[in-house]
Structures are given as structure tokens and as C-alpha cells.
What we know:
- Monomer.
- This is DNA polymerase IV.
- Its cofactor is Mg(2+).
- By secondary structure, the chain is an alpha+beta fold.
- It contains 13 helices and twelve strands.
- The chain has four domains: 3-11 and 80-164, Reverse transcriptase/Diguanylate cyclase domain (Alpha-Beta Plaits), CATH 3.30.70.270; 14-78, MutS, DNA mismatch repair protein, domain I (3-Layer(aba) Sandwich); 178-228, DNA polymerase, domain 1 (Orthogonal Bundle); 245-340, DNA polymerase, Y-family, little finger domain (Dna Ligase, domain 1).
- The chain is 39% helix and 23% strand.
- A hairpin with a 3-residue loop joins strand 10 (284-293) and strand 11 (297-309).
- Helix 10 crosses helix 11 (220-228).
- The protein is globular.
- The structure holds a DNA duplex.
Amino acid sequence: MTRWVLHVDLDQFLAAVEVLRHPELAGLAVVVGGDGDPTKRGVVSTASYEARALGVGSGTPLRTAAKRIPDAVFLPVDRPHYEAASATVMAALHEVTDEVEELGWDEAFLGIDDPPDDDPEAVARDVQRRVLAASGLHCSVGIGRNRLQAKIATDYGKPAGVFRLTAATWFDLLGDLPPSALWGIGGKTSTKLAELGIATVRDLAGADVEALSARFGPTTGPWLQRIGAGRDSAAVRESPRERRSLGREVTYQQDLHDWDDVRAQVVELATRVAGEVAESGRDAVRVVLKVRFVPFTTRTSSRVLPEPTTSATAIEQAALEAFARFEPRAVRLVGVRAELSR
DNA sequence: TCTGGGGTCCTAGGACCC
DNA sequence: TCTGGGGTCCTAGGACCC
Length: 342
């Protein structure tokens, strides 16, 4: 039996969906983010390839994007519309196999056993045709023997391509790259690894697991070495998985200077979250309050609920108890998150 | 550059108990 | 009067991802 994992990633998803319904935007620098007003606080969710070529990508502050590309088309994030497009795509993927693990709106892993002629590329191209036919959207497909290989392969297939990455080519392709080239390693971990003399993926694969464990802990240490070597579980976890938490947060356009205003926002968010907890049919077991002070210092405070509950009163009270631990200061963001019972 | 909103998982320290 | 080892829970925060 031969086992393959395919990683399907829609190309410039939000921008592509917008171009589909506004064909006149094709070929333009399209920037989707916030409420579409680039003078407000917010960041870019997705930029079209044309915008990326001009220095604007996901995470770029909208105000920066507007300075870099004054004549870009700025559009608001339209969640319901993207969710519908995503559902169409995921349905197309489920026609290929039941083994589908969704990763947000625009990505999924597919588990494929024994493809015809042991030709996973043919399956990948079939996936691309089906997605395009169903949704009008192009995607790239990475092929690997596990999720990690497939996920990284996709980048080499973009846009609209197919790319295979296995143990045979892992070090040829990635060996000399910094560890941050790997899925799960960001800038912070990369810096810590450099302090241990680990500068490349090859170094990481050959690193001493004991040393990694001493620095990163008993779970993360060995995991880092494994992903350096390109090893990962081939299991595709069926989605949707049981959600662990549910929250709402808001960055205010103007900083809140009045502590009573902040308190009122805590209550409002807690009420909203409580409503959604009740709707979810699950119980909350803990409430986490998040406050981002001016200029950008973030603090959290949490309370275990006396018992698992959907009670808005209990959730609000826990949020306020957490709130009472903070000293009054100017605030730019308030968030409330409920952790759900297992 | 002046930094969203939705999440997940892991670590570490202190409290507390046996 | 100076002190163990293990286990679990709670809390805060870090890091990462889409």
C-alpha cells in the first residue's frame, strides 16, 4: 500500500473570490482587509499577486498598504461570502476522498491511499480541475508522504501548480534554508535555535534531542528535531474537530481612556460570547479576558468557572473578576474567550 | 510598518495535597 | 527547624498559524 498526503491551498483566496464577483478587478492590485477603509486600524487579510509584487501582503497594516499602493482596490472582509465559497471548495474535495482535514477557509489535507498507477500527481490535477469547476477558483497542490512535506511542497507549486516533496528531496530543497522555512517554526524559535548553533534545516535534523529538550521542553524539543528531518504524522485528522474555545475581540478605532468604558466593553463582549457558547450547545469551563494597552502591551487574565455553564451571568461575572485584576490604563483592544468543556 | 480577529498547543511557576 | 518527591490544578504568557 502506498500512502500519500495532498495539501490543497487556494491561490490568493479572498482576493480571488472578490475578482470572481467583480471581474473588472482582474489584474489589479486588490487588497482585502478590515472594513475596507485603509485609513483605519486593521491589517491585510489577503492581497492579490499584483499587490504582493508592490510590497503588500497578509498582515501588512492597511495604512501602510495605502501608502505603498495608493491606487489599490481596498475591499472589506466579507466573512459569509468567503465561508460559502469555502464550503463549495470543501465539498468538491470530499468528492475525492472522505479523508479531508480542513485548515481554515482555504486549505485542506487529503489522505490518499494507493492512487491509480501510484500517480499522486494525477490525483492532484484531478483535484485542481474539480475545485475550478465547482468554484471558479485556482489552487495549488503539494504532495508528500506526510502532512509536513505536503504543506511545504505547496509553496513550490504556487500558483496553480503541483509539487512533490518527499524524504528523497527534503534536504536538497530545504537543507540550507533557515528553520523558519518549516511549518511551525517562526522567527522567535529560529532566533533561539541560532543561539544553539542551529542555523539551517539540516542542522536541526542533526541536532541533539537532549539539548533541544532542555531548551524547548520535553514535547517541543523532540518535535523540532523531527520536523527538521521532515518527519510528521501521515494521519489526516478528520474535520471538523471539536472546538476548544470561542471568543470575540475588538480593536477600537480610538483608544479607550475611560476605565468605565473599558468595563462596559468587557460586559458587552462577555454577553456576546455567552450567547454564542449557549448556541454552540457546549459548556464554558473558563473565561479568559484579554486587554491590549496603549501602545501595544497585551495582558490576559482568566478565571475558572465554578461549574461548567452557559449562563451569561456567570460568564460575565468571571470576566469582570478577571478585569478587576488590571490597573486602569488606556486600552486599544478588549477580548473575551470562553474555553469549552471537553 | 504602527501593528486584526479567529484559533490551537505548549511551558513554567506556584499552590496544594499526599 | 529545616526539610523529599510526585502529582494535579490554576494562571499567565509565548509562539505559531490562517
